[in-house]
Write a structure and sequence with these properties.
This protein is an alpha+beta fold. 24% of the residues lie in helices and 33% in strands. Strands 33-32-34-36-35-37-38 form a seven-stranded mixed sheet. Strands 1, 2, 4, 7, 10 and 11 form a six-stranded antiparallel sheet that branches.
């Protein structure tokens, strides 16, 4: 009996362990990298901020902070400590080992402290040991480096989507779903131009919400195996081209003059079908999907849109002003403290002379005001420092001017650093006094100017105006291959990241458009010479050209090309449009669709496009990448360039005008002196004699 009992208990234990392991295996894992780049913090007491999000359909079972860091190697009688806080609540402290090289630390985050959007703050402090006491020491050797490899990992169960558009869209556009390649947009095997345009609207609408530079949603033909395998699918087609299994979901009568969106759930496959009787209403329906606000407000499984349905995205007109914080930020304790704010600028604009940061501050009155100051950095570049003053502690307004030549990009960081020294040094720097607060009225004013260069350093901004597509005409292959779909997805993944509105126009063409269309549009030409006749017509305009028989690329002044090697490269070339010198023309081509795809991999993410500052990119099948500039003058619009030059050099022009007036007055004064003393008239009298 005893043996039987032992056997039963053993079996029960094994079953419990197996069940626990099965549940653990069912958990999904997603690692969210921090947006911050590697940064070094110096000072006796340092702090850094970063942000991460928890997606609403996760049932989180465990969250871990994975820190990758390095601290200064100091004398044996000094120790370091690091404290971690989430949403203002400190929950973990530790002492890192004093050793060379990068260290790692995994810390469990209390689940009850995690919200949807989270602020993670990391504090560091260096202490000197003097006998039994510890006193803080100010030295440049006190530093803490946080590496970009730091991240937060979530272990979670996935909540299945509810049967409504809001829930489906949240899952479809979720960072984990896209990272795992589980979201796809499906179109007919050989889609019409209108269907491709509709799919592109949907793609760019989702892309603008993606926070990473490593994952994307793809447009694929509906017979691709990845479409069948994907749990989350958006099927886009006119009603006549819909797969038979979906046609019965719609009534032709209900689709008259309308576009329809309908969910179909079956066997862990979640599908949104978007269809209409014609291209115009199909594109109207996909513009609805491209509007995040409308999709996340729709709590039903079916939606019909008509020509009168307002599908445009709401947007605030950019007036150059950006609020740094909506709630205000308070930094406590002596030593060095930092707060970083991220600012988005319309992609087609850049910094011009006159931009400035205006800080509204409050701070403690018990500071040593001889040594306490605030410093502002733009993308880690110091733009100025001010000493804090006792008489302004309750309400201090400070203005920092940005240099006119400071390149800030479409997204940049404003870092505000405080060095707070109390009147008397205490044993610990973690006291709640002194303190400094950044008020919600703090702003950055960016005096922006439109970018005006025809280079990849300005791509895709030159194809975007007022935050949306600027009359894009896409000439695509007559017969689309899988590589062509991949290349198209790459192109519009990047364009979508830069667009903030769904009101622009994209038109696809299988043949060369008429002259009026070419003159009024920015043009993208995609494919091989065999697939796309327009590439043959443009061959003489290309920087990298094909031979007369269009069998390989030929050499030019930048690169010698062996004939067989010329069959294995793809190029992306940014040209001045021969149809309108104020418009751009992008040609992505190669001998095979695979080569075209390889070229497109250099213009798919922000992290790749920033590597290219010229007007031509060459990629071979061994993944060797070359970047060239052929244009001597990259200005797109000379009239705009002249206006920008004047705006950028306003001060210099004012000085020159003042100097010219001074010289004119000086010459006039000399003339009057000579005239008054009869020196000029005397000369004339001598001539008359």
């Amino acid at each position: 009996m005893k043996k039987l009992l032992i056997m039963i208990l053993t079996a029960f234990s094994l079953l419990s362990a197996w069940g626990g392991q099965a549940n653990a295996d069912d958990l999904k894992s997603y690692t969210q990298p921090f947006q911050n780049t590697t940064q070094t913090l110096s000072g006796k007491s340092v702090a850094a901020n970063t942000y991460f999000t928890k997606i609403d359909y996760w049932d989180v079972k465990k969250a871990s902070l994975n820190l990758s860091y390095q601290v200064s190697q100091i004398a044996d009688d000094q120790t370091s400590d690091i404290t971690v806080a989430i949403n203002g609540v400190k929950f973990y402290s530790f002492r890192p080992e004093v050793k060379d090289g990068v260290q790692t630390k995994t810390i469990d985050i209390p689940l009850n402290l995690i919200k949807g959007s989270n602020n993670l703050k990391i504090y560091g402090q260096i202490l000197n040991k003097a006998g039994k006491s510890a006193v803080s020491v100010q030295t440049p050797a006190n530093w803490l480096t946080l590496y970009q490899a730091s991240n937060v990992n979530f272990q979670y169960n996935l909540k299945q989507p509810d049967y409504n558009l809001k829930s489906f869209y949240n899952h479809f556009s979720g960072a984990d779903t896209i990272s795992f390649g589980q979201s796809v947009i499906a179109v007919p095997k050989q889609p019409s131009d209108g269907e491709l345009a509709a799919a592109t609207y949907a793609l760019t609408g989702v892309t603008r919400t993606i926070a990473t530079d490593t994952d994307q949603v793809r447009i694929l033909p509906d017979n691709d195996g990845r479409v069948k395998a994907a749990p989350y699918r958006v099927v886009i087609a006119t009603y006549d081209h819909l797969p038979k299994r979906y046609k019965h979901e719609f009534s032709v009568a209900k689709l008259k003059h309308r576009g329809g969106l309908k969910l179909v759930y079956a066997k862990d496959k979640y599908t949104l079908i978007i269809t209409a009787l014609d291209d115009q209403m199909l594109q109207k329906a996909t513009r609805f999907m491209a509007n995040t606000e409308l999709m996340t407000e729709t709590k039903k499984p079916v939606k019909y849109v008509s020509a009168k349905t307002a599908t445009y995205m709401s947007s605030l007109h950019y007036d150059g002003s950006r609020q740094l914080t909506t709630q205000g930020v308070t930094l406590s304790g002596s030593g060095h403290h930092e707060e970083t704010f991220f600012v988005a600028l319309p992609a087609s604009q850049s910094n011009a002379y006159g931009s400035k940061v205006r800080l509204s501050l409050k701070y403690a009155k018990n500071l040593n005001f001889n040594n306490s100051l605030v410093t502002v950095y733009i993308n880690n570049r110091n733009i100025g420092s001010y000493k804090l003053r006792a008489e302004r502690a309750d309400n201090d307004e400070l203005t920092f001017k940005l240099p006119a030549n400071l390149k800030i990009g479409s997204g940049f960081s404003v870092r505000v650093a405080f060095d707070l020294e109390p009147r008397q040094i205490t044993k610990s720097d973690n006291t709640e006094s002194p303190w400094a607060a950044i008020n919600p009225t703090s702003k950055i004013f960016v005096h922006a100017m439109e970018k005006n260069t025809l280079l990849f350093s300005n791509y895709p901004s030159l194809f975007i105006k007022n935050n949306t597509y600027d009359h894009l005409a896409v000439v695509r292959p007559q017969t689309m291959t899988t590589d062509d779909f991949e290349a198209l997805s790459n192109l519009f993944n990047l364009i979508g990241i830069y667009t903030k509105s769904n009101t622009g126009q994209i038109k696809f063409y299988q043949h060369q458009p008429d002259h009026t269309t070419l003159k009024n549009s920015n043009v993208i030409v995609l494919g091989t010479p065999g697939q796309n006749a327009m590439i043959k017509r443009l061959n003489d305009q290309l920087y990298f050209r094909f031979n007369a028989r269009f069998t390989h690329f030929i050499s030019n002044e930048k690169l010698s090309i062996e004939s067989d090697y010329g069959k294995t490269i793809g190029t992306a070339q940014l040209l001045r449009s021969p149809y309108n010198p104020k418009r751009g023309l992008l040609v992505v081509t190669g001998m095979t669709p695979k080569d075209v795809y390889l070229a497109s991999t250099q213009i798919n993410y922000q992290k790749t496009i920033v590597e290219h500052g010229g007007d031509t990119i060459v990629v071979d099948q061994d993944n060797n990448i070359y970047n060239y500039r052929f244009k001597k003058h990259a200005t797109l619009n000379k009239h705009v360039a002249l206006k920008q030059t004047i705006r950028k050099n306003t001060k210099l022009i004012v000085y020159l005008v003042i100097a010219s007036l001074f010289m004119a007055l000086l010459v006039a004064a000399i003339f009057m002196i000579l005239w008054k003393n009869n020196l000029l008239r005397k000369g004339k009298k001598d001539e008359q004699r």
